[in-house]
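QA checklist item 7 of 12: single-chain prediction sanity check.
[x] sequence parsed
[x] length recorded as 307
[x] structure emitted
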Amino acid sequence: MAARAKPGSLINYIIVRLLLTVPMLFILLTLVFILLRVAPGDPAAAMLGAHASIEVIEQMREQMGLNRPLYVQYFAFLGDVLTGDLGKSFRFGIPVWDLIKHRLTATIELVLFAFTVAALIGLAVGVFAASRRGTVWDVSGDFYGILTYAFPIFWLGIMCQMLFAVELGWLPTSGRFSGFIDPPVMRTGLYVVDSLLEGRLDKLVVALRHLIMPGAVLGLYISGIFARMVRTNMLQTLKSDYVLAARARGVRERWVLLRHGLKNALVPVVTVLGLQFALLLGGAVLTETTFSWPGVGSFLVDRLLER
């Protein structure tokens, strides 16, 4: 018999997930360190140029700590990252944090918009499919979940650019803001929020026009996952005793779905939604590159290509 989710078990689940982020963080940092070391090219040689002598390159390697044992470099890398010291960019001559902090807010704005799109579409498709189990609409909802995850996100982005920007001219092809108007005064770093705080609807429209297409593409990418999760949990919840009792009392089917079915089906879904942020951040790298969005992902790709 299905039962309502217990608050205590939900809290324990969240605590366990939070504790698991600690080893996951170390694994992620270790993978980043390994990738940096196995990547082709010598950072010292790349910084000094092709005409630098071997002696000068060796001096730079010593200065950068690249001649130290790998385990020493690894623990130094961990210590710097965990203390917030991302080092100094040898290419630009300024702290790395100064390079990425404005790009970080651009990525956050993109991910938040995409998360909203994914949640709204996923909820709508999941509830609609679950309420029509066994019909063609149910199969279509399941197919939607597979289709959105199967399509390469960069291909979807290019197709949207061709349709909505090139053919219809409704939205800009790339960038975060127009070059014909000054960006909003930086308060939060989120252009939509800053435009509202400044009281400039014209800037808000510009910010939204640039945000809609990359945000919608990224949101569609994971909306299918949300839809399948909602559908699965809704179907389990609709078999529970309290839902059957509500139907026996003559409660309208719409209220059964929304008040009893969806409300309780969302409990396990919400706990998993936060884990999808990692998937969104991964998709943001390709989305930012496709739409020339000035975020951390496009910055990372540019630096890797330089390497």
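[x] summary fact logged: The mean pLDDT is 80.
[ ] second reviewer sign-off
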